[in-house]
Amino acid sequence: SALELVPFGIKPLLRRAAAYEALERYQLAYVDYKTVLQIDCSIQSAHDGVNRMTKVLLEKDGVNWREKLPPIPAVPISAQTRWNVPSAGGPTTPCETAPLGKPDQTAAGTERARTLKEEGNELVKKGNHKKAIEKYSESLKLKKECATYTNRALCYLTLKRYKEAVQDCTEALRLEPNNIKAFYRRAQALKELKDYKSSIADINSLLKIEPKNTAALRLLQELNRA
């Protein structure tokens, strides 16, 4: 009811997310926490909530858990308090949000970014990784999204462009600090670049989140033999 009066109110969103979490409705809690981060990406409790929900949903629904999520609403610029009140003296770093512009342009841009990402996904299935990279790059110009970075990183790995893969995974981890795919793919790229120490560090970080990840355990064994 509070959100009907004030759409994108941070307190109602956070409290509803906490309520959903308590009711084990983790997908809805994830959506509310992510919506809060679009409004103000400096809110630590929302970051913590996203990390908790990511872990729970990964365990519950597997690696394709994102495909089962309800849509995350696009927050209009007028509701993005981060841009209205920049931190004094500090650099303004965009987090996972829609590009600056008018609200209707923002919504259109977000939808276009999603379409481009899906087109990239289809190209990956067909094995056309170079063309997929183009689609993901266009999508990222409109909206910085973790999944798009990790998908493009996979393409870079396939094409043996390991430095670009590392860069994309690093960007993904800035958006979602506990992202399993970003840790794993960066570890793969770092292994190919013979930076074994950093690669092992990424695998260890991944295993703290998901201790029984068989692919990570296998890669760790390979790294220890390297």
Structure description:
The chain is mainly α. It has two domains: 10-74, no CATH class; 105-224, Tetratricopeptide repeat domain (Serine Threonine Protein Phosphatase 5, Tetratricopeptide repeat, Alpha Horseshoe). Helix content is 69%, strand content 0%. The protein contains twelve helices and no strands. The chain has helices at 2-5, 10-22, 26-39, 44-61, 81-84, 103-125, 129-142, 146-158, 162-175, 180-192, 196-209, 214-225. Helix 8 packs antiparallel against helix 9, helix 9 runs antiparallel to helix 10 (180-192) and helix 10 runs antiparallel to helix 11 (196-209). It starts with a helix and ends with a helix. Residues 82-105 have low confidence and may be disordered.
SSE inventory with pairings:
Blueprint: H1 2-5, H2 10-22, H3 26-39, H4 44-61, H5 81-84, H6 103-125, H7 129-142, H8 146-158, H9 162-175, H10 180-192, H11 196-209, H12 214-225
Helix pairs in contact: 2-3, 2-4, 3-4, 6-7, 7-8, 8-9, 8-10, 9-10, 10-11, 10-12, 11-12
The main pleated sheet reads as: none
Q: Please, what is the average pLDDT?
A: 84
- Shape descriptor reads globular
Kindly state the number of beta strands.
0
Spatial extent as radius of gyration:
18 Å
Structural class: mainly alpha
InterPro entries: CiliaryAsmbly_MitoImport, TPR-like_helical_dom_sf, TPR_rpt
Pfam family, one: TPR_1
Region (Disordered): 88-107
TPR repeats: 146-179, 180-213
Q: What's this, in brief?
A:
The chain is 69% helix and 0% strand. The chain has 226 residues and is mainly alpha-helical. It has 2 domains: 10-74, no CATH class; 105-224, Serine Threonine Protein Phosphatase 5, Tetratricopeptide repeat (Alpha Horseshoe).
